[in-house]
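User
Class, as today's exercise, I want you to study this protein, comparing sequence with C-alpha cells, and judge whether sequence predicts the C-alpha cells.
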Amino acid sequence: MADGREWTADVETLTRSYGREIFARLEGSGPVPFAPSWWDERLMEWSMGNEAVKLQLFRFVDVLPMLHTPEAIVRHLREYFGEARERLPGWLRWGLRRLPSRGILGRLLAALAYRSAERLARKFIAGANLAEALEAVARLRQRSLAFTIDRLGEATITEQEAEQAQADYLELIHGLSRQVNRWKTNDLIDYAPLSLPKKNGEEDREVPRVNVSVKLSALYSQFDPIDPEGTSWAVRRRLRPILHAARERAAFVNIDMEQYAFKDLTLQIFREILEEPDFRDWPNVGIAIQAYLRDTAGDLEELAAWAQRRGTPVTVRLVKGAYWDYETIVAAQMGWPTPVWSQKWQTDANYERLTK
C-alpha cells in the first residue's frame, strides 16, 4: 500500500494535469474578436491591470442597481473615477470632466455607462430583482452548480435603509424558496458527502437549496465596533426574522465577513445570536472567514472551540478576502500594522494551511 507521501504526490500530479487541460480548453473558447463580449474582456483586462481603476470600477458596479436617475449615475461616475483620474484614458477623463450630468448629453453618458457596467456586472451579479435572480440560479442549477446569493448596495446610513435591507433579505429567502424547493432533485448538489447527526439518531445529508449571504452592517445604520453591545442588540433584532424565515423555509444563511474593523464584532454577533434558544440547535448557518488576514488562524481555533461548546456544527466559508486594497490603504494612512498579508502568495499559502 502506498504511504501518505506517495498518495500526496499522485494527487499533486493529477491536479497539475487537470489544470493544464482546463487552461488549454479555455484558450480556444474565447469570444469572437470585436463582438460585445470581446470588448468586455478587453475592458476587464485593462481594469484588472490597474489597481486604482479596478477598485473604483467594482465600487461603481456594486452600487449601480441603486442608481435610478441619469444624474445619480453621472455623479457616481465622477466621484468614483475622479479618485483614479490620472490612470484613465484621455478621452474618458475629458468626458467625465466636460459632459454635463443633465440634458441629452448627460442622459447619453449615463446610458453608455449603465449599459457598459451592466454587461460587466452580469459576469458577477445575478440580477437587479428577484425574477432575474431566479433566472440566474436556474441556469446555474442546469449546470449542476449550487449558489449563494447576496444583496448589493451602498453602505447603510439610515434606519430606513436598514429596514429595507432586512425586507430585501426576507424577500430573497421567501421568493427563492417558493421556486427552488420545487425543482427536481439533483443528487450532485442537493446531498452532501458527509452527514450530520439528527436528534433522533438518523443521518442528515440533505443540503439546503437556497443559500443567502447576509452583511450584518446592512442591518443597522450605526454599526460601530466602539459600541459592540448596542450594535449587537440592534443587529440581532433585525437578523432574528431573517434566521426564522430561513429555518422555516429550509434555507441556509451565510454571514458575510466585511472589512477588518468589523471582524471581531461580526464574530461576536454570530456567536451571540446562535446561542439563543431558537437557533442553538440549527446547523444551516455559516460565516465567511478571510484567509488574507494574518490573525485568521486564531479566529478559526476560537470558532471551532465555541461550536463544540454550542453542541451544533456551523459552516465556515473560507475565502481569500475582497478588501485588500482598502485594508492596506487605511493601515498606511493611519500608521497601523497592516492586518492582511502583503503578497498574494502569502494569502494562498495561508489558505492552504487553514484548510488543514
